[in-house]
């Protein structure tokens, strides 16, 4: 009996009228935990009953405490017939199980009914007395803290980051059991809600056990998902990063609003570098940056525009001999010959008909692997991670060994974190992703979820090998997702291959001196960009240059990652949200045929999505993507791809080349004219974007006029050819020559469409910025006004004979219009930034496309001088001068061009934000309204891990809630929009109520993981399932804490917001 | 491509004041979009008509969902579903319960029943206020009426407490409720020149002095709840008013009263001769109004009578307002000098209010 749960039912209010005759209700409450039920007395004839019950005590195992939710049911007593249920409240008591979190749950909870929605509120007090149990074989994991936040929570310090934990549990979906035919929709919904609540409790407990095994005490970046597999069952799975966290006794003044690169930047004299020579040869492994695999620069330089990529989608050859496989695309000749210079290798189109492997598909489980990674060329050509070790300096090798030893103990060296303690991330390789198409079959034995486990294990293995092929020993920013349609399921995983600092991975394995040297070795602000692989062994023609920041090491020309922008990264200008959107029609098919069709489409989609991303990135004049998330959604007759990322200009990477359009029929005069017109438009757009996002890298500011395209490139090429001493110089140069301008070939209407669609993306109205990362690079003066929102749109495609183009256009318009609507709705917050913009696409029916967006709008103060930026400028100046001396060996031409321009024009830094068009925050005073007589405390919600201008003082536990809402009177509830609008508002309300009951005043890292909406207008019915999660926290305004912050005037300059936090 | 579903839900419920006004004014989404386009919002923001349509729909849906709560404003404060800053809550409530002068003049004093509700069509056509808006305003009147009808204590306080209205608006509602309860006729042609403000002023005076709640207490002492009803006129008082009859029935008394008034006002009144000539008529009018108030029918016609018997005769003789004031003051005060008259307190209670009302009613 290691725990005693105590519950008291205090009162109810705003109850619905259950007795038409008296217009009143005779309410009583059932309190259920596990198999024990208590009842309160009936409080007759009142809509505001005062039960004031005794303490109901449940004596239970802590295992049950973790698994079971507390169920509170409010009923209307009826003498003659069955008692009518008014509604229920599920309370997850997990937050009470660890000492640092909440000690009591007490407050008003909305009474929720799956048919009627919220019907009044009930006041409940819950406490837990936990007895310490030292049983070594215990099945519970009480005390392990869970955080949805994908970084180290603000009031903790990471002692050790242990690594990946995962678990999944399966069950039959109650909605698909035979009994569902005879029970009411309400009973069925409640069975489902209860089951999922139980399953997530169990899952969390099991994950907790794994953490304890690893000797950790917390899970950070905990992501739990449901797969509604329909007939075949219900899967609840979770991943996270096990850590050992220490509570900070006196938390360092953290700067939520200021993730500026200048912070803590260490000035390291570069000549102290112990191993100057190793730099040119780069770190040790021959890895392959995933970015390159998407880098169509090379392909475009060759003429055929369609899908001529030597680097697209290579299936893996050996690693999984078990089970039938289909090779999704023909392997390139280069693979077999092992050539590293794939100049003109394969054209996908030339072999686009698949080899007829289908016959081999006898197994019920269709296993397909789409490894979208060129690095496999590498792996295939026999360049293991070890081969290059010698070339790295001895220090690097040491670091490498240690990190490896730390990581190799792990089955999967994955981290769900997207932001890291300083120094944790050494190098970033690039995005690694894997997808696999599966046929669902009934889960026969829920206790042995082996198939699902095996599926994920395969995918993870694949990710691991991709990372390894890139020479990286870890994957960060890792996430998993599924898309299910009928019996076909696409499993996806993606992350960012990276080299990590072993210091955090194991306790005390690294000696102090090493640590120090390591730190010195990392040039601040650009270290993570440096290629972790050896350029001599590059299997592909990449375009490396010396880092524009430190001039010491090589960097790629573009960098794609799934993580947040590292805090110490040096960024020029601001970032922006970049999306690639794509639809592909597919024939309706059954089972295996369907899976095959999907598998065939996937690689093309991935390729096109990446091409689009790359084009749009260039169009923005930027050179890196952060927070990349590619979602492939499967529907009955189409596939949808949506990639979102935040583009930035990393100072360390070279200036991106422009986009050049080339026509196929050069003799046609009018065509030619059209092309040149388009070219002009593109050039104008790039120039405009550079201005808009304040991208004024040193070079550009030197040459004010001139086309933004090829010139800077030539210099960088020069730089390289001067410095490189390898044999490949000429070859590399060749490719560079072509690459300078990124060529888009227009040879048919399709391509034309593509170019048009590039230009149709409208930038946000001035005063608005958007990104899908935590914070917006270049903005660091956030004010405290935040508005989290969810927006859902469903469109019905008009015609049945849709073409891919029409579909693309529809989808594109849908997303663009949605964004436009958001900008319009939030216009009163200008100047503001939409952060953590999270798009989710689903295809609920044949002709329906659903897009769900959750984001937070944060205002910022445009008048605050960007002091951090200034500081940063000074640093860069210093750095530049340091570099000067070192670079003397380079041709004068280079120096004169790039160096004097290094300093930012200081005037620019001050006048950056002159954008807002409509009134200078006319509505700002809203937040200054007096908090008069409201009895409901404000609870803020945000998908970010912090609250601007405030400090999180306590984490109260994880919020993980699942709701079903159903209606049989859709029209009466305002149609689908009315129904869903009300439901989402109710979900928000229930989240807020739970947080408030825990004693919190905000939810951070909030995420709506699922929003499954189904309708049947003919029957006047609709159903919706929503799953949300986040971390309940207590925050305090910084001014309240009397933090006299000199670094951050922005946070303190808003006294109006501190008193009355009335907006959220 | 058609939008099947299009929603935006903020953690803080977004309220657009302009759209709220359009919604309250009863415009359809289409009309509201057209009006917003005309306001030049598209040019200001660079938005498209489709965006505006979606935005308007969304706000309308929000308002529609909030409407249920607005029917019982304290619920809006305590509910958990919509997180709305208090200042915004106050704005929502205040605007929701605001009404149009033109509309309130049409229904003031009418029974707030289904029958009247049926006439809303005509009122809508007549006033140019949309039927929807008329319904909302009518329902507001009726709802407030129903809630405070049976309550004790100050009418204004009750309304304020149960509907969280501003003081100003609560007073207006008190007048509306008072008029509806006593069914004062306000729609006659001769009363058309009077504004809602005029009636509300009178209502406040009458509530303060002529109702049960006014008996024996200073108006500043709301705690002593001795059958404190603000809605109904004090029946006993009305009964007592019959005693005033003597002022006009007794010829000597009437003459004495007249001579007292005339003596006092001689030389001070521009319209002295007209006053002198009309004194008996005017006095009869005012006293007869008092004595008739025991009949419900005559209570209803109070304002008609006052205008007919006093305002119109004075106006036709072109009395300036200052003269009316002088006359009424003297007229009320002189009664104290009538030795044969015993009902001084009753007279003051009656005439004090009536004087205030008449002065307010006396304009063009």
From TrEMBL, chain B:
Pfam families (UniProt xref): FIBP
GO cellular component: nucleus
Record-level Gene Ontology MF annotations: fibroblast growth factor binding
InterPro entries referenced in this protein's UniProt entry, alphabetically: FIBP (IPR008614)
Domain of life: Eukaryota
Entry's Gene Ontology BP terms: platelet aggregation
Name by which UniProt lists this protein: FGF1 intracellular binding protein
Gene: FIBP
């Amino acid at each position: 009996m290691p725990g005693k749960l105590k519950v008291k039912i205090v009162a109810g209010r705003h109850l619905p009228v259950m007795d038409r005759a008296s217009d009143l209700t005779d309410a009583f409450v059932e309190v259920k935990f596990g198999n024990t039920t208590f009842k309160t007395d009936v409080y007759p004839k009142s809509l505001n009953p005062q039960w004031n019950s005794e303490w109901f005590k449940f004596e239970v195992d802590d295992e049950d405490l973790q698994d079971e939710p507390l169920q509170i049911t409010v009923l209307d007593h009826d003498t003659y017939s069955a008692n009518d249920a008014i509604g229920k409240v599920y309370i997850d008591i997990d937050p009470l199980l660890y000492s640092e979190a909440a000690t009591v749950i007490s407050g008003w909870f909305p009474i929720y009914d799956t048919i009627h929605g919220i019907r009044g509120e009930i006041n409940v007090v819950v406490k837990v007395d936990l007895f310490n149990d030292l049983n070594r074989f215990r099945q519970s994991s009480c005390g392990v803290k869970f955080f949805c936040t994908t970084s180290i929570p603000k009031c903790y310090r990471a002692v050790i980051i242990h690594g990946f934990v995962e678990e999944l549990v399966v069950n039959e979906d109650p909605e698909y059991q035979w009994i569902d035919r005879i029970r009411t929709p309400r009973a069925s919904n409640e069975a489902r809600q209860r089951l999922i609540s139980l399953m997530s409790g169990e899952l969390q407990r099991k994950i907790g056990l794994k953490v304890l095994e690893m000797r950790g005490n917390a899970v950070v970046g905990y992501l739990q998902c449901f797969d509604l597999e329909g007939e075949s069952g219900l899967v609840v799975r979770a991943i996270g990063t096990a850590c050992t966290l220490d509570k900070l006794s006196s938390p360092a003044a953290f700067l939520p609003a200021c993730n500026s690169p200048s912070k803590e930047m260490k000035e390291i004299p570069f000549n102290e570098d112990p191993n100057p020579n190793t730099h040119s040869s780069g770190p040790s492994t021959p890895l392959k940056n995933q970015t390159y695999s998407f880098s169509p620069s090379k392909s475009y330089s060759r003429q055929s525009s369609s899908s001529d990529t030597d680097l697209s989608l290579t299936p893996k050859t050996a690693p999984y001999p078990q089970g039938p496989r289909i090779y999704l695309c023909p392997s390139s000749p280069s693979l077999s010959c092992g050539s590293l210079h794939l100049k003109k290798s394969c054209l996908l189109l030339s072999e686009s008909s698949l080899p007829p492997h289908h016959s081999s598909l006898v197994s019920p489980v269709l296993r397909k692997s789409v490894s979208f990674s060129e690095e496999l060329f590498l792996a295939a050509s026999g360049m293991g991670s070890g081969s290059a070790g010698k070339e790295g300096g001895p220090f690097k090798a040491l670091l490498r060994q240690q990190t490896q030893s730390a990581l190799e103990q792990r089955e999967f060296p994955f981290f769900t974190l997207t932001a890291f303690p300083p120094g944790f991330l050494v190098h970033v390789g690039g995005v690694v992703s894997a997808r696999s198409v599966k046929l669902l079959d009934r889960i026969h034995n829920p206790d042995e979820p082996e198939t699902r486990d095996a599926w994920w294990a395969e995918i993870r293995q694949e990710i691991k090998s991709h990372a390894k092929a890139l020479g990286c020993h870890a994957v960060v920013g890792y996430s998993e997702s599924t898309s299910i349609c009928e019996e076909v399921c696409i499993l996806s995983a993606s992350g960012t291959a990276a080299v990590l600092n072993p210091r955090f991975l194991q306790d005390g394995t690294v000696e102090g001196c090493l640590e120090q040297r390591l730190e010195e070795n990392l040039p601040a602000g650009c270290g993570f960009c440096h290629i972790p692989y050896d350029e001599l062994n590059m299997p592909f023609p990449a375009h490396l240059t010396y880092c524009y920041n430190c001039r010491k090491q090589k960097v790629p020309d573009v960098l794609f990652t799934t993580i947040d922008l590292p805090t110490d990264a040096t960024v020029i200008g601001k970032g922006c949200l970049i999306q690639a959107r794509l639809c592909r029609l597919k024939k309706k098919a059954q089972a295996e045929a369907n899976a095959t069709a999907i598998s065939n489409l996937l690689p093309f989609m991935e390729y096109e999505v990446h091409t689009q991303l790359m084009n749009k990135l260039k169009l923005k004049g930027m050179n890196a993507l952060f927070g990349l998330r590619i979602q492939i959604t499967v529907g009955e007759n189409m596939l949808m791809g949506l990639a979102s990322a935040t583009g930035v200009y990393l100072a360390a990477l070279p200036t991106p080349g422009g986009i050049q359009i080339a026509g196929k029929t050069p003799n046609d005069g009018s065509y030619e004219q059209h092309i040149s017109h388009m070219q002009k438009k593109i050039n104008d757009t790039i120039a405009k974007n550079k201005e808009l996002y304040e991208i004024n890298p040193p070079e550009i500011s030197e040459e004010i006029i001139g086309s933004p395209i090829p010139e800077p490139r030539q210099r960088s090429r020069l730089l390289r050819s001067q410095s490189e001493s390898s044999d490949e110089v000429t070859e590399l140069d060749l490719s560079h020559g072509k690459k300078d301008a990124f060529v888009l070939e227009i040879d048919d209407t399709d391509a034309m469409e593509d170019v048009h669609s590039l230009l149709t993306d409208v930038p946000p109205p001035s005063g608005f910025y958007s990104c899908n990362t935590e914070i917006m690079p270049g903005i660091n003066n956030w004010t405290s006004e935040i508005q989290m929102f969810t927006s859902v749109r469903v469109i019905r495609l008009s015609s049945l004979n849709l073409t891919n183009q029409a579909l693309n256009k529809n989808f594109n318009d849908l997303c663009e219009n949605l964004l436009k609507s958001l900008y319009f709705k939030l216009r009163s917050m200008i100047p503001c930034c939409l952060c953590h913009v999270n798009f989710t696409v689903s295809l609920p029916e044949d002709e329906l496309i659903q897009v769900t967006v959750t984001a937070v709008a944060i205002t910022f103060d445009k008048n605050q001088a960007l002091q951090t930026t200034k500081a940063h400028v000074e640093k860069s100046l210093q750095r530049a001068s340091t570099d000067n001396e070192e670079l003397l060996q380079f041709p004068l031409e280079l120096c004169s061009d790039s160096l004097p321009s290094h300093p930012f024009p200081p005037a620019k830094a001050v006048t950056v934000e002159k954008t807002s068009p409509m009134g200078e925050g006319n509505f700002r005073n809203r937040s200054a309204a007096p908090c008069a007589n409201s009895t409901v405390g404000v609870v803020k919600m945000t998908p970010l891990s912090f609250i601007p201008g405030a400090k999180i003082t306590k984490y109260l536990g994880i919020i993980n809630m699942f709701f079903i809402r159903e209606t049989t009177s859709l029209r009466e509830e305002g149609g689908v929009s009315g129904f869903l609008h009300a439901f989402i508002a109710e979900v928000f309300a229930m989240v807020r109520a739970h947080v408030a009951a825990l004693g919190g005043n905000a939810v951070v890292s909030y995420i709506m993981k699922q929003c499954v909406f189904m309708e049947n207008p003919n029957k006047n019915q609709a159903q919706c399932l929503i799953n949300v999660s986040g971390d309940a926290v207590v925050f305090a305004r910084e001014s309240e804490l009397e933090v006299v912050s000199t670094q951050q005037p922005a946070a303190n300059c808003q006294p109006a917001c501190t008193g009355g936090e009335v907006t959220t | 491509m058609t939008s099947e579903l299009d929603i935006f839900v903020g953690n803080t419920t977004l309220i657009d004041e302009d759209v709220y006004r359009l919604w309250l004014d009863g415009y359809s989404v289409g009309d509201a979009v057209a009006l917003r386009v005309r306001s030049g919002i598209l040019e200001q923001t660079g938005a498209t008509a489709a965006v505006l349509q979606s935005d308007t729909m969304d706000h309308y849906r929000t308002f529609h969902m909030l409407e249920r709560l607005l029917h019982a404003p304290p619920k809006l404060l305590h509910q958990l579903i919509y997180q709305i800053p208090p200042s915004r809550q106050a704005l929502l409530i205040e605007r929701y319960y605001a009404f149009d002068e033109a509309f309130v003049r049409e229904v003031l004093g009418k029974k707030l029943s289904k029958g009247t509700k049926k006439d809303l069509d005509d009122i809508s056509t007549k006033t140019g206020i949309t039927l929807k808006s008329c319904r909302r305003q009518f329902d507001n009147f009726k709802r407030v009426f129903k809630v405070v009808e049976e309550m004790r204590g100050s009418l204004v306080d009750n309304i304020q407490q149960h509907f969280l209205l501003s003081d100003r608006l609560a007073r207006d509602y008190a007048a509306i409720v008072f008029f509806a309860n006593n069914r004062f006729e306000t729609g006659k042609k001769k009363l058309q020149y009077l504004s809602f403000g005029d009636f509300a002023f009178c209502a406040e005076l009458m509530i303060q002095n002529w109702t049960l709640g006014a008996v024996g207490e200073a108006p500043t002492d709301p705690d002593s709840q001795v059958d404190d009803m603000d809605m109904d006129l004090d029946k006993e008082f009305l009964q007592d008013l019959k005693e005033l009859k003597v002022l006009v029935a007794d010829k000597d008394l009437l003459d004495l009263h007249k001579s007292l008034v005339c003596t006092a006002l001689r030389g001070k009144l521009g319209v002295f001769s007209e006053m002198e000539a009309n004194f008996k008529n005017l006095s009869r009018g005012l006293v007869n109004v008092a004595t008739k108030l025991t009949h419900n029918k005559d209570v209803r016609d109070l304002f008609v009578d006052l205008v007919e018997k006093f305002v119109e005769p004075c106006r036709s003789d072109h009395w300036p307002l200052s003269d009316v004031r002088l006359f009424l003051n003297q007229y009320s005060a002189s009664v104290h000098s009538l030795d044969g008259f015993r009902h001084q307190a009753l007279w003051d209670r009656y005439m004090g209010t009536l004087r205030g009302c008449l002065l307010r009613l006396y304009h063009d």
